[in-house]
Amino acid sequence: MRPTAKSLILDLLSTARGGAMPVRALIAAAALFEIGENGVRVELARLSARGLVQRNDRGQYALTRVAAPVHERVSGWKDLDTAHVEWTGGWIAVHTAGLPRRDRAALRRRERALRFLGLRELHAGLWIRPDNLRGGITEVARVLRALGLESTAPIFVMSGLEPALEARARELWDTDALRADYRELRTALATSERQLAGLAPAEALVESFLLGGRALRVLALDPLLPEPLVPGAERRALVQAMQRYDRAGRRVWAKHMPTHGAADRPSPVDLSRVRAATEGAHQRSLG
Fold it and tell me: How deeply is 107 buried, as exposed, middle or buried, from its count of CB atoms within 10 A (0-12, 13-18, 19+)?
């Protein structure tokens, strides 16, 4: 899936060394995906008007604080192993049944925030996840609010579920599909890493950008389920494969971006799919 002008700009600014890039570098990168200069400039104007990007004192574009919550979550993929703690059996819960549902934009923001942090709906209006994230309920609440969950939504910890309900709770996530993604992506990353050096420069740039994005989507949206539900070794293996691919992608992009006034692109990732799932975090700036 090719990125749009909007996703490409946000992706590049999210991963650029120093956090900023000149217009000519964005235009050069966009050309690889057959996105014209006018499309880049028009989208930059739109993103600036929405408060998502801004020009710095060097005339380069950078993300604003509005984009920070999603960027913070996505950029932590290398540290997933330290983002969770041992699970003691409790659940973090969010009760949304009393929140208004007529505002469709607010509803989308709410549900995307919940899913982005790995919560699933146990009963109508009751979303849960294992209480195994570092920082506990305080950190979960902070991130959920930042991503768009209303401040009036009750967030709490629950435990002692009756056996049938506990069993149902543990089956809310498609763990077989998650593990299949881990394995498939590890293989794809390893294969591409071996082949990148032999590809034409433009092909290598595009492949590292798009394949890296597929892996990042899985990692950024990973629910970080505890060991009883998903073997942690499989997620760690994907992170390690992505770290190797990240280094290979940096080498590819380092040859391309400095010629356009930008530092090397530090990560061969495409955040477009992640951003599609979490668009509500940005939409809050629109009112």
Answer: middle
Tens digits of per-residue pLDDT, 17-57? 677 889 988 998 899 899 999 999 999 999 999 888 998 87
Which CATH number does the domain 84-170 belong to among 3.30.70, 1.10.287, 1.10.20, 3.40.50?
Answer: 3.30.70
What are the sequence ranges of the domains in the chain? 84-170
Q: In whole numbers, what is the pLDDT of the chain averaged over residues? A: 85
Cα 279 to Cα 218: distance, rounded to the nearest angstrom = 17
The DSSP symbol for 179 reads H
CA distances from 242 to 78, 89, 169, 185, 250 (A): 9, 30, 30, 9, 12
CA distance 266 to 251: 9
Rounded CA gap, 87 and 51, in Å?
39
